[in-house]
Structure formats: structure tokens, C-alpha cells
């Protein structure tokens, strides 16, 4: 859609690119379909760190409003790092503060565990059907046969975030984006999943050009016993060919 700038690396020459920038060369080839030794890379801003997440206190304990208490702790549930939201970054996380966040609150969570759990304490027994609701939800998604492919829903969400919550944003654009995302979320009820995958392996002993089925396959877990073969690190069908390169 021409909503990108071009990054030129051709002047470096193939030898330097393959020696010092092999990851960028591979990412550009897979996701943007360009040979960086001869062509510019189409680049656009993209998220590479998620702020927000599961609400937590500074001990790493998950909190959820209950009985009028906004800081009510969920017993036995903790979160740290990018999964958690301790609200320390503000609207613009400074570089490397994600590691600081993880180290500080990971240590706090460990200390809190030591305070709450006596050595040798056993887990409380779980009901045999404790995991059934989660597995049922997974099965519904895994066997969803609606009309909207996952790539279409993902792209709709991506475009909304780029238009309404980009680098420069306003109260009006954020509110409009929230309304659009709510509609996108509702459309999940009509999602179609035609190639569910349970895992992927990366072969570091293969050269970048390897695409033989014997070396390039996704691996199903117990829910799908038959192996599914396709080029490794393949781009999802239906997504635009623009490189997403993190620089932070």
C-alpha cells in the first residue's frame, strides 16, 4: 500500500551482508520477498515489545477487581516480564528497561513465593477435569470453520493499530481504534482455522536456502498426530509482504 520507506543495503555488497547481516537478509527474503544485495527493503514501524498485560502488584501477584477492591490478589497466580503489567513504563518504555523490569520483578516474585510457601509444601490435588474448559476452548478454535481466515483478522487488527494507535496518536484516534478493535474481536466468532500447528522446529545446521520437505516441517503435538510439511518460517497466507525489522 506504499505505506513504507526503503532501506538500502546494496552498497555494502553481498559478502558483508551475508557475514554481518544474515538475519536481516533472511527476514527480508521471507517476509518481503526481496534480495537485499540487489533490492531495497520496504520498512514500516512495528511493535517489538508489548506494554500492558496481566495486571500485577509489585510482588508479581496477579490482581483482579473483586468485591469493590481493585487490588484483590488472585491466590497462587503470578506473572512477570512482558506478560505482566506493573505499570512502570508509562507511555514510552526506555531502551533496555524491559530487562530491568524482568530482573527486578522476577526477583520480587521469587521473594514473595518464599514468604507465602513453606518448604516442602505439596500442590493441592487437582480435579481430573480441571483442564477440560481450557482444552474445550482450544478444540473450538482448532476446529473453527467460520468464514474469516486468521490472516484476515490479524491484518484488520494490524491496520487498525497502525492507523489509530501509531507513533503519533490522539484521544480521538485511540477511541476510534478501540471501537474498531472491539468489532474485530467480535469477528473471532466467525474465524476459520484450516492449518492448526502445535510446534515448529528451526534447523540451524541447514543452509538458508533449504526448502526440502525432509528438513522443513511443522510438527503436530498430541492433538494432531500426522506431520504437516511446509517451508520453515513461512509467512502466513494473506499477509502483506513488508519486512518487520526490530531496531530496539
Automatic annotation (TrEMBL):
Domain FAD-dependent oxidoreductase 2 FAD-binding as annotated: residue spans: 2-99
Matching InterPro entries: FAD-dep_OxRdtase_2_FAD-bd (IPR003953), FAD/NAD-bd_sf (IPR036188), Fum_R/Succ_DH_flav-like_C_sf (IPR037099), Fum_Rdtase/Succ_DH_flav-like_C (IPR015939), SdhA/FrdA/AprA (IPR030664), Succ_DH/fumarate_Rdtase_cat_sf (IPR027477)
Biological processes annotated in GO: anaerobic respiration
GO cellular component: plasma membrane
Keyword check for Oxidoreductase: yes
Disordered, as annotated region: 201-248
Domain Fumarate reductase/succinate dehydrogenase flavoprotein-like C-terminal span(s) in chain numbering: 154-194
The protein, known as: Succinate dehydrogenase flavoprotein subunit
The organism of origin for this protein: mine drainage metagenome
Top-level taxonomy: unclassified sequences, metagenomes, ecological metagenomes
